[in-house]
Structure formats: C-alpha cells, structure tokens
Design goal:
155 residues; elongated; 4 helices; 29% helix; single chain; alpha+beta
Length: 155
C-alpha cells in the first residue's frame, strides 16, 4: 500500500456528545396504566392540576397523587397539552393545567363516564347562607351606616 491512500478509508462518525442533561431528556418514561388512570381521574374531578417543575421529585404535591412520581404526572399532562386537551400556564416554576371542552369529552371516553358528570370547576357551588337573609332589614328604612346623607342634620 505504500504512500498512496487506500480507497477504504475509515472515517470516524461524529456523534453528538452525551451529557447528563441530554441523557435525562432522552430517557424513556414508562407509566403504568394504573398511575395514568389515577392522574386522569384526578384531573377530571378537579378540572385543574398544579405540577411543580421538579422532575426529580419522588412524589407529586397533591394528596390524592402522593404515591405517583412527579415526573409521571408531568409527562401525562405534557402529552394531554400537546393534543390540546388541557391548556398550560407556567409561573414561578409551577405548571398549571386546565381542562378544555375537548379534554372533558376525551376523558369521559377514556374513563367511561356518563355525560352528566362534570369537573368541579364547571359545577355551580351552592350558597351556604339563605338568599333572602338581609331582606327584612331594608324595609324599616334605617341602615347600619351614614350613607346618602341620612342623619347629617341631626345632633
């Protein structure tokens, strides 16, 4: 072979450098069906969910989902966000996810729920006090305050 270059030159293939950060992003997250169903049920019940931006947290911050790693909750909601079933708001290292109308229909189909069941954000809250509680006070003409000039001339 001498000084001539051989047609069989082996070129070194340049591969991107793998750092710990890129290795974390490229790792696949496997979520069990049981955990995914718990997350979806909680999201449908509440209509909104808050997730701290901490992929290394071993538990989620909400009491009903404490047994599930925070990363799993983040990934399920990121998937729903990419399909436009939830809207995402990020503020001060927290993600806030809100169900959309399409998301409600999708979760009804996945969770086998009847159309009468709604998330708690869409149900009206009943008032704790009676609606006509203060109606008898206004009939006498005297209120609690000094409004509209009543009593200004009285000594």
């Amino acid at each position: 072979f001498g000084s001539r270059s051989s047609p069989f030159v082996i070129h070194r293939v340049l591969q991107p450098e793998v750092t710990p950060l890129t290795a974390d992003l490229a790792a696949m997250v496997l979520i069990s069906k049981k955990e995914k169903r718990q997350i979806l049920e909680h999201l449908f019940q509440e209509g909104v969910i808050c997730v701290k931006k901490d992929a290394r947290a071993c538990r989620h911050n909400e009491q009903q989902l404490e047994a599930i790693p925070n990363l799993h909750v983040m990934m399920v909601l990121r998937s729903l966000c990419s399909k436009a079933f939830v809207t995402e708001t990020f503020n001060w290292q927290w993600y806030y996810y809100y169900l959309t109308n399409e998301g409600i229909d999708y979760l009804r189909g996945v969770l086998n729920l009847p159309p009468q069941v709604m998330p708690s954000t869409l149900t009206k809250q009943r008032p704790t006090r009676p609606a006509l509680a203060g109606a008898d006070q206004g009939a006498s003409g005297e209120g609690k305050g000094w409004g509209k000039g009543k009593g200004k001339g009285k000594g």
